[in-house]
Design brief:
This protein is of the alpha/beta class and 224 residues long. The chain has one domain: Rossmann fold, CATH 3.40.50. It contains 8 helices and 8 strands, in the order βαβαβαβαβαβαβαβα. The strands form 2 sheets. A 6-stranded parallel β-sheet has the order 3-2-1-4-5-6, sandwiched between helices. A two-stranded parallel sheet has the order 7-8. Strand 2, helix 2 and strand 3 form a beta-alpha-beta unit. The protein starts with 5 loop residues before the first strand and ends in a 15-residue tail after the last helix.
Length: 224
């Protein structure tokens, strides 16, 4: 395991691929995971075509998970539980799992401007209940625009609210620092993820009403 590597499961999707591009551009090794290895390999090739010399590889999810200390889950909510269950046996402390999922109502065929209830309270808390003991779960990156992540010549003007166990905070805050324009904000305990996830549905509605297809972001004012 490369201690500087970042695994992104669902790195074939728009947001996951955007993070892969940004982290690779910052010089970090990136491991893209997918349910099908060939899709991950194709995504990795796309990153290398975009960023000369990028250290990016693609594997099936379980193999990708074993190659990095930080594993980002970037899949639609309806696939989150299945993805975590599929990698559970290869997760081990002190790995950190980052939950990006949001329980949007699209999971049940409704619109993206509404949420569905999650028994555990949030997608991040659902993930925390599925990982092995000792593997820490952090909530982050839900509200970062996929479009703006992939615009590599532009800064991504957005705050990333990180809800987490205290010990895992530093590692994920360091990831934010790799992307120009992103600022990590201490979001407190993991239970606050349910609030942050809900902001995604709000932002989707604002994108529609204000006609901003590139995606809006959040800024918290008044921070020291």
């Amino acid at each position: 395991m490369d201690r500087k590597a970042i695994a992104i499961l669902g790195g074939t999707g728009d947001q996951g691929l955007g993070l892969a591009l940004r982290f690779a551009k910052a010089g970090r090794p990136v491991v893209i995971g997918s349910r099908k290895a060939d899709r991950a390999v194709t995504a990795a090739e796309k990153v290398r075509e975009t960023i000369s010399g990028a250290d990016v590889s693609g594997f099936e999810n379980a193999e990708a998970t074993q190659k990095a200390p930080v594993v980002i889950i970037s899949v639609p909510f309806e696939h989150t539980a299945g993805t975590v269950k599929a990698i559970r046996d290869v997760l081990a402390p002190p790995q950190i799992v980052v939950s990006m999922g949001v329980p949007l109502a699209t999971a049940i065929g409704d619109g993206p401007m509404r949420m569905i209830g999650v028994w555990q309270g949030s997608c991040a808390e659902l993930v925390a209940g599925l990982v092995p003991d000792g593997v820490q779960v952090v909530s982050a990156f839900q509200n970062v625009s996929a479009h703006r992540l992939q615009e590599l010549d532009e800064a991504v003007e957005c705050d990333v609210i990180i809800s987490r166990p205290k010990e895992a905070r530093g590692a994920v805050m360091e990831l934010c620092a790799l992307v120009p324009g992103l600022r990590a904000v201490n979001g407190g305990p993991l239970g606050n993820a349910r609030i942050v996830e809900g902001m995604t549905a709000l932002l989707v509605g604002l994108n529609v009403r204000y006609k901003v297809p590139e995606g809006l972001g959040l800024r918290i004012t008044g921070l020291p």
